[in-house]
Amino acid sequence: MATFKIGDALKQFVQTSKLKNGIRAAQIEEVWLEIMGTTIAKYTDKIYIFNQKLFIETSVGPLKNELGFQKLQIVARVNEKMGENIITDVVIK
């Protein structure tokens, strides 16, 4: 029987698990303030990932408009911060 380090086993589990997107969304939420700044982070209601799309929910109309203009920058910032290409698109709700 092969031996694994617990960290390696957890990484393998996350890669094959359906929990992968939820864990990544939680990781993005942790660094969202750093990625987007105080004002945007304050008015972001929810963040989740589905089919490599980052869904951002906010109830502030002008913020939705501003985020719409920044989609490419958001994709680049998130992927850079996470160290891999996690998302390919952003959907503002």
Structure description:
With 93 residues, the protein is of the alpha+beta class. It has a single domain, classed as 2-Layer Sandwich (GMP Synthetase, Chain A, domain 3). 58% of the residues lie in helices and 15% in strands. It is built from 5 helices and 3 strands; from the N terminus they run αααββααβ. It has helices at 6-16, 20-36, 38-42, 61-69, 71-82; strands at residues 46-50, 53-57, 89-92. A 3-stranded mixed beta sheet has the order 1-2-3. β1 and β2 (53-57) form a beta hairpin. α2 crosses α5. The longest helix is centred in the N-terminal third of the chain and has 17 residues, at 20-36. It starts with 5 loop residues before the first helix and ends with a strand.
User: How much strand?
Assistant: 15-25%
Overall spatial form: elongated
What is the second-level CATH architecture?
2-Layer Sandwich
Strand arrangement within the widest β-sheet reads 1-2-3
The structural class is: alpha+beta
The total count of helices amounts to 5
Radius of gyration, CA atoms, in whole angstroms: 15 Å
Report the helical percentage. 55-70%
Work out the count of structural domains.
Answer: 1
The biggest beta sheet, please? Answer: 3 strands, mixed
**CATH fold-type name:** GMP Synthetase, Chain A, domain 3
Number of strands: 3
Amino- and carboxy-terminal Cα gap:
49 Å
Mean pLDDT: 85
Order of helices and strands: HHHEEHHE
CATH domain class name? Alpha Beta
